[in-house]
């Protein structure tokens, strides 16, 4: 069973920044380089041997350190490193863990960009990838080879909302001495993958964590050893490819992180309400918060209860044409925006097959059960969700879809 005592929200609440002349928010680092009083300290810092010293902002800077410490606290990992995008967090981890000739096992349903990187980009480096149904643990285990370095999955997959059994995947990974890497973008606070046995947790902070759709960012949560390895000046992937987050953005994300728990509860509450009403009107949809979802019990056994089941719902309109007319009408009538991305305060909807999963070939989309008419909702923070449902219902009725 999940550890119900794990409390990411209180871990964030307990972060403090005060002292004589200290602002309540950490100061923004408006510098790419930092001064040293003596040459030896500079040299030691280059070799990663000095605490609290900053050399150059691509490596570390105080604003990114403050945000990294906060994300690590939320996740329960020793350390974290924040990146310029979710994709750079993912690609940094994969390129750090794998050498040419290595092998990765991944869920076939992942974010389209991740799928494209695994499928189209990694062959350049002769890194092999096996795509599996991540819920079929036997096929995961059967895919392990002597050169396998890691299992990659999303805690709740995009856009199918399949829940990964992190404790069991972790057991398989440990048995074979390989790493379990989990993308927790859809379910910050709700699931705590490291606490459930993942080795490394990655985020697109562009989504729920920031929650404002005003910037792109990512995070890598891992052991101090791994964070030191990716930021090593000689061979660290983060240091050498340079996907650093800008400190200005970092500082604004840190402030938004302090409201994440309240936002997640409201996203979840609204999504559960809509899911129940969708069930009443006989819509075909997927939401892990209802008993009809095949992973509902699994979700119950691993989630941090008070944050609900998340803000994402996938409805099936069967064809891309029907999905398009519904989305256009919903936007006209003020349900939210027809836009990709998620975790925003307003409701966003998009047809996954034609947008964020368009990198996944159509035959693979069909094989994983993704309908061409799948409309992915990121439910917003609406105060009056009942009237939002009424608007959606009126659109469905006027289009004669219910
Ligand atoms: C958006 C997203 C990403 C990519 O993040 P960016 O910040 O856009 O680079 C990765 N994984 C998931 C699940 C996402 O939704």
Automatic annotation (TrEMBL):
UniProt superkingdom: Bacteria
Annotated TM spans: none
Keywords: Lyase, Pyridoxal phosphate
One GO molecular-function entry: pyridoxal phosphate binding
InterPro entries for this protein: Cys/Met-Metab_PyrdxlP-dep_enz (IPR000277), PyrdxlP-dep_Trfase (IPR015424), PyrdxlP-dep_Trfase_major (IPR015421), PyrdxlP-dep_Trfase_small (IPR015422)
Xref: Gene3D superfamilies: Aspartate Aminotransferase, domain 1, Type I PLP-dependent aspartate aminotransferase-like (Major domain)
GO annotation (BP), single: transsulfuration
One CC-aspect GO term: cytoplasm
Protease is among the record's keywords: no
Residue list for modification N6-(pyridoxal phosphate)lysine: 207
Cofactor(s) this protein cannot do without: pyridoxal 5'-phosphate
UniProt similarity note: Belongs to the trans-sulfuration enzymes family.
Protein name per Swiss-Prot or TrEMBL: Cystathionine beta-lyase
